């Protein structure tokens, strides 16, 4: 029988993921915290001995809490599935899984305005499945629809997002591709590949804390920056930082530094390295790989 201490420990271990789910559903840190707290309160009112999978139960509950909050906003009408033709509901054959993954990983603050255009059910289905890999049969219990209907909702939401430019000058999917190529080139010591990814006038700007951690200093020019970074970044991992793909250094699971990239015409024009602990605590960071 689970005791209160065990439940508290398990919930706290799940809190970062629950907060990330809620933030991408609701688009507000304050509302996300409220949703997490409501999930905790519901857990306290539930007989935990009847919960077979606590992680799945928590995801289901926070999904329902977020869905209720989205619906209560009342600013959008949720379209019924019957309002769309079978052709509209069918997932297009040309949808590439790799592109789906890139789109999902890029969802963050910069796409919340686009996500806000989705009806609540589409938003829940897309975020839970494409971003957090929750199976359709679990999402179906939240939305009270069949797994196939949920699959169609996620697909329709995905197509809406793919057809909407997130910002006038930022392609988050392309950003992910460039940063991924940068990381591979830096780790592998591929100097030429790094130079090709960098704008000739690129600038690397480490903050004071990052400078204090090692030999980094402000550096300008593709050749100079590539010389500094080639063979480095071995402890860095892809991460979503304030909604945009960057790199995070998190030894032991604690983020000690992040690297943010500014792109123009598919070239990196600025690299900002942050090591300041207070600033890092303010950032919304979700690590993508281990």
Describe the SSE topology:
Layout: H1 4-26, H2 29-44, H3 54-72, H4 86-89, H5 97-105, H6 112-115, H7 120-131, H8 136-143, H9 147-162, H10 172-188, H11 191-197, E1 198-206, H12 208-213, E2 219-220, H13 222-229, E3 236-241, E4 244-249, E5 257-264, E6 267-274, H14 277-282, E7 285-287
Parallel strand pairs: 1-6
Antiparallel strand pairs: 1-2, 3-4, 3-7, 4-5, 5-6
Helix pairs in contact: 1-2, 1-3, 2-3, 3-7, 3-8, 5-7, 5-10, 7-9, 8-9, 10-11, 11-13
Provide structural commentary.
The two termini are 33 Å apart. The protein is globular. The chain contains 14 helices and seven strands. It is an alpha+beta fold and 290 residues long. The protein has a seven-stranded mixed β-sheet with strand order 2-1-6-5-4-3-7. Helix 2 crosses helix 3 (54-72) and helix 5 (97-105) packs across helix 10 (172-188). It has two domains: 4-162, no CATH class; 172-287, Nuclear Transport Factor 2, Chain: A, CATH 3.10.450.
Short structural summary:
With 290 residues, the protein is α+β, with helices and mostly antiparallel strands. Helix content is 53%, strand content 14%. It folds into 2 domains: 4-162, no CATH class; 172-287, Roll (Nuclear Transport Factor 2, Chain: A), CATH 3.10.450.50.
């Amino acid at each position: 029988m689970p005791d209160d201490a065990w439940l508290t420990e398990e919930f706290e271990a799940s809190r970062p993921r629950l907060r990330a789910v809620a933030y991408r559903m609701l688009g507000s840190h304050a509302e996300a915290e409220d949703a997490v707290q409501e999930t905790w309160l519901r857990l306290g009112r539930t007989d935990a001995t009847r919960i077979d999978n606590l992680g799945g139960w928590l995801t289901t509950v926070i999904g329902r809490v977020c869905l209720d909050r989205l619906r209560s906003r009342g600013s959008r009408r949720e379209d019924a599935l019957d309002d769309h033709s079978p052709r509209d509901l069918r997932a297009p054959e040309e949808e590439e899984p790799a592109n789906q993954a890139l789109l999902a990983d890029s969802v963050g603050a910069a796409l919340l305005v686009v996500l806000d255009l989705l009806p609540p059910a589409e938003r829940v289905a897309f975020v839970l499945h494409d971003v957090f890999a929750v199976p359709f049969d679990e999402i179906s219990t939240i939305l009270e629809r069949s797994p196939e209907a949920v699959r169609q909702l996620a697909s329709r939401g995905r197509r809406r997002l793919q057809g909407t430019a997130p910002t006038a000058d930022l392609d988050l999917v392309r950003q992910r591709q460039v940063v991924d190529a940068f990381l591979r080139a830096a780790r592998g010591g591929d100097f030429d590949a790094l130079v090709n990814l960098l704008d000739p006038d690129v600038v690397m700007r480490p903050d004071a804390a990052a400078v204090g951690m090692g030999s980094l200093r402000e550096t300008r020019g593709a050749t100079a920056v590539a010389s500094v970074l080639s063979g480095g970044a071995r402890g860095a991992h892809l991460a979503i930082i304030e909604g945009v793909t960057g790199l995070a250094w998190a030894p032991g699971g604690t983020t000690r530094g992040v690297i943010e990239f500014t792109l123009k015409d598919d070239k990196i024009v600025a690299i900002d390295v942050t090591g300041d602990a207070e600033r890092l605590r303010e950032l919304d960071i979700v690590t993508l790989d281990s």
